[in-house]
Amino acid sequence: MKKIAVITGASSGMGREMAFQLADRFEVLEEIWLIARRKERLEELRGQFPAAIRCFALDITDETERKQLEMALAEEKPDVKFLVNAAGFGKIGNVGDLSEGDECGMVRLNCEALCAMTHLVLPYMSRGSRIIQFASSAAFLPQPKFAIYAATKSFVLSYSRALKQELKPKGIGVTAVCSGPVKTEFFDIAETTGKIPLYKRLVMANPKRVVRLAIMDAAVGKNISIYGITMKAFFLLCKILPHSLILRLMEE
Ligand SMILES: NC(=O)c1ccc[n+]([C@@H]2O[C@H](COP(=O)([O-])OP(=O)(O)OC[C@H]3O[C@@H](n4cnc5c(N)ncnc54)[C@H](OP(=O)(O)O)[C@@H]3O)[C@@H](O)[C@H]2O)c1
Is pTM beyond 0.70 here? Predict the structure, then answer.
């Protein structure tokens, strides 16, 4: 059985970085399966890894398109050592000001497609395998002007924590990555509908570092990976203080 990693959102940002770092650090990986819609972006990655790559240019919110992956898994029957669900997007703006497509699209990609991918790949994972789910620090607190995005990430965090408990007997780890703002193409998309607040710009992290920590945290079996002292402090604050109070303070 071929040992592989399956990565969604592999055409840019943290998914792409995951592909590089996993291939570099885990020689055991014979193939990396890269998934995103932009085929040319995935193809550009050929020859850049020590492991072979297989590109799946598909929209993972589309059940019919996901069948390609389902068929490839059934045919190859690989041993998936890593599943990384990094595909995701957020749009800034009040509920109702965003289009219905954007509002529901965030739920479809960030929640539904992430569950579908996990469901598809899980039967091919074995003891010692790891699932890395990209949530966000937005999961810690409701966010006005980013309401649906933050809610989708709360879903991912809650789902990942429960899944971790369920998979314990099978020896499969689950880590939710809850970074704060990270410098990727994410904000090019998010800011098509509104501007991010200055404080987020000031704490923008480097994707290489966030991914390095996520891999380390997944390797040691942490259920949550939070990069940076600021976000760790934010996580604690959201646990200690009533959310209504934090929201009021942030408003002022
Ligand atoms: N950047 C941040 O500040 C930040 C902070 C915390 C958490 N996160 C989360 O981290 C994850 C990675 O974000 P990023 O910052 O790396 O963003 P990014 O650079 O915008 O990457 C998003 C990836 O998702 C893929 N994607 C989007 N829609 C898709 C679809 N329908 N089907 C398949 N693939 C799709 C994109 O590829 P195509 O366009 O080619 O399909 C791209 O590869 C996301 O879940 C995001 O919510 C980001």
Answer: yes
